[in-house]
Specification:
Length: 439
């Protein structure tokens, strides 16, 4: 399988090259040149498949250069946690993606990638430097996923003062091969600096850089698994609507990729906070990236979602086709708070702020847009729950007026000493730091 850039100005590359490079040399994002499809018999038997079965089957179609037994081991080990589908009644479901070590869905990508990278790397290779911008959860997942992996160094850029206390502790206390850079700017500044590093020829001569952001195709592969697994868990085989709380739109892109591979989905709901560039595009047909705004669902504070390029490519650069696949809506912090409170009170179900944005979007869809995708009332709506509420304790506790218990794996990092380097939001500063540190 070859991978091609969404900008179409770079040569097709192998899986190893697409994964280890992250961004294509023409600044585009990699997608498969020809879409693989799961067999009808596999799809018909989905309800009997485990997450690991699905994972291995899909990975095999995308990953070259790693033997079957190794790849099967990787998928088993990376996906060693539960992904329950909870019913909230009225055909509304929540797919809990937060049972991994850092309590957010980013664990899927990070745990899979770290193992894939180490299988692809050769002993003789230079150290690989994973450079990742994080709006909060990627950093901690990547720090955990790559911690103490031989031959790999991790450098995380996060916006100073714009991640939660717990997120910051998670990403600055890993130590060993993981370093955190605290950037005086927004997530978009971090993302821009990282992109600049990847396209800086002289830097790439000296360091072998790789990315762990959702610009990396290797991260999106494991995110397809749970879409299929959600359908496997429905009691009646049906074609659901997936609602995806979105920031950089990697998660929603993975859903479209799953659909390309034969997954039956009626449509996708793109739920955002005030950073509503994509819902606005869906309404007006214009894509206007702009600086991100701070919200309580901070992992979605993205003003220039990089996977938009993949969405457009996957749907043939056709606005009408994009609209037929995706409906979008954005919600304010006060709407988000209100829905957390309401669902907790009425259904005894506690959602983190990101999941709540998704829930609110489904509410709105049902009340005013039902039938947009020509579906029936009985079509299941599955909200991807992207993080555990305890991760956003500071926001949630005042809303529900109660203390929430912290899972043990989260407690572990809270008393450790934060270690980070403060950096200006300036690419030259980053370059200097990288060369000093890793060269
Ligand atoms: C990263 C993240 C998102 C956004 O996912 P994208 O793939 O960037 O759209 C949503 N919720 C949480 C909790 C996240 O960590």
């Amino acid at each position: 399988m070859k991978y091609i850039s969404t900008n179409k100005k770079a040569d097709p590359v192998s899986f190893a090259e697409a994964a280890l490079k992250g961004l294509a040399p023409d600044g585009g994002l990699y997608l498969p040149q020809i879409w693989p499809r799961l067999s009808d018999s596999f799809l018909d038997q989905l309800s009997q498949k485990s997450l690991q079965d699905i994972g291995f089957k899909i990975s095999r179609l995308f990953v070259d250069g790693i033997d079957d037994d190794v790849l099967e081991g990787i998928t088993k080990e990376a996906l060693n946690f539960d992904v329950p589908l909870n019913s909230l009644g009225n055909q509304v479901y929540v797919l809990e993606l937060f049972h991994g070590p850092t309590l957010a869905f980013k664990d899927f990508g990070a745990r899979f990638m770290s193992r894939i990278f180490s299988a692809l790397r050769k002993e003789s290779d230079r150290d690989l430097v994973i450079l990742a911008a994080t709006s909060g959860d990627t950093g901690s997942a990547v720090a955990q996923g790559f911690l103490s992996v031989e031959g790999i160094k991790v450098c995380l850029l996060y916006p100073k003062g714009k991640v939660s206390y717990i997120q910051e502790q998670q990403l600055t206390t890993a130590g060993q091969n993981v370093t955190a850079l605290e950037v005086e700017g927004t997530f978009d500044d971090c993302q821009r600096m990282v992109k600049e590093a990847f396209s800086d020829y002289s830097l790439n001569e000296k360091l072998q850089l790789s990315s762990a952001n959702s610009i990396n195709i290797a991260r999106l592969i494991p995110q397809m698994f749970y879409y299929f697994y959600a359908i496997a868990q429905l009691s009646v085989n049906s074609s659901p609507i997936f609602c995806v709380p979105s920031g950089n739109f990697g998660n929603l892109t993975a859903g479209l990729m799953a659909q390309k591979m034969g997954m039956s989905a009626t449509g996708f709901i793109a739920a955002t906070n005030a950073n509503d560039v994509v819902p606005e595009f869906l309404d007006y047909g214009e894509f206007n990236p702009r600086p991100s705004k701070r919200t309580i669902s901070n992992a979605m504070d993205v003003g220039n979602p990089s996977n938009f390029a993949r969405i457009v490519d996957l749907l043939n650069e056709d606005y009408q086709q994009i609209k037929r696949h995706i409906w979008g809506a954005s919600f304010s912090d006060s709407q988000t708070r209100q829905v957390i409170k309401e669902v907790y009170r009425k259904q005894d179900y506690l959602m983190d702020p990101h999941t709540a944005v998704g829930y609110r979007a489904v509410q709105q869809y049902i009340s005013s847009e039902q039938g947009y995708f020509s579906e029936s009332k009985s079509t299941p709506k599955i909200i991807l729950s992207t993080a555990h509420p305890a991760k956003f304790k500071d926001v949630i506790e005042p809303i529900i007026g109660k203390k929430i218990t912290m899972p043990d794996r989260l407690k572990a990092c809270l008393n450790k000493q934060k270690q980070s380097h403060v950096l200006e939001d300036d690419y030259d500063e980053l370059k200097k730091w990288l060369l000093n540190h890793y060269n």
